[in-house]
Write a structure and sequence with these properties.
six-stranded mixed sheet, 27% helix, globular, Deoxyribonuclease I, Chain A, alpha+beta
């Protein structure tokens, strides 16, 4: 199986750039999308040309904002939406699909904001998300994928010194939040296979950043330890265009 995560930064915008053809090219069994920026009916409309997938989406109360979706070749046993915490579940940021051997959870973690005004809220989200996947992991292995909105190590962004504790996604609180996931036994699959490889998954639209490869690794596939037994490789698909993020994923045995 091939599992993929991709922040679209607007599913309707990517549809105009050939989303259905890109999905055919990716040929994944399950894809988790983040930042659809669309209501559920608009997600289905944007995916109308996509064949052979079950479609699930979670949209924010605020229109044109946030939102996640899962498309799956195999019908899940069960699909649920959100963390079950009203404070967090107004923005369509998480979908859980249960399969025979694992949970596939896709999430769009809140950005702390350019002035870090949401950093305290973001810190609470990280804590509640970890508790949520811990409960799932007691039942069966977990894959958590998505735009986790953090560069965990200096290797994960082009300019660590100038961004540290100033830029959302690279504050110590956010770094600590990711460390808490790893300390709880979840494995950053890309770093497991490629501990020293410099590869990014997001580039600003400004300053020709993607062409210069001035980027950040914000998109992850985390696996529980039992889930890691199923993983044979992890990847970041820098050549896939259409968004300011690129797809990331894992191949399973």
């Amino acid at each position: 199986m091939k599992l993929i995560s991709w922040n679209l930064n607007g599913i309707r915008a990517v549809q105009k750039k050939g989303l259905s053809e890109i999905i055919d090219y990716l040929n994944a069994d399950i894809i988790g999308f983040q930042e659809t920026k669309a209501q559920d009916n608009q997600v289905r409309e944007a995916l109308r040309e996509v064949q052979g997938y079950y479609i699930y989406s979670s949209s924010a109360v605020k229109k044109g904002y946030s939102g996640t979706a899962i498309i799956s070749k195999k019908e899940p046993i069960n699909v649920t939406y959100g963390l079950g915490i009203e404070e967090h579940d107004q923005e369509g940021r998480l979908i859980t699909a249960e399969y025979e051997h694992f949970f596939f959870i896709t999430t769009y973690v809140p950005n702390s904001g350019s002035d870090l005004h949401r950093l305290t809220y973001r810190t609470k989200w990280d804590k509640d998300l970890l508790a949520f996947i811990d409960r799932k992991n007691m039942i069966k292995p977990v894959f958590l994928c998505g735009d986790l909105n953090v560069a965990h190590q200096p290797i994960d962004l082009k300019n660590p010194k100038s961004n540290y504790n100033k830029t959302p996604g690279y504050t110590q609180k956010e770094i600590d939040g990711m460390t808490n996931f790893l300390n709880a036994g979840y494995i950053d699959t890309f770093r497991y296979f490629y501990p020293e490889q410099i590869k990014y998954s997001w580039w600003s639209y400004r300053f020709n950043s993607r062409a210069k490869n001035v980027g950040w690794r914000l998109d992850y596939f985390l696996a529980s330890q039992d889930g890691m037994d199923l993983v044979k490789d992890a990847f970041i698909l820098n050549d896939v265009m259409g968004s300011d993020h690129c797809p990331v994923g894992v191949d399973l045995n």
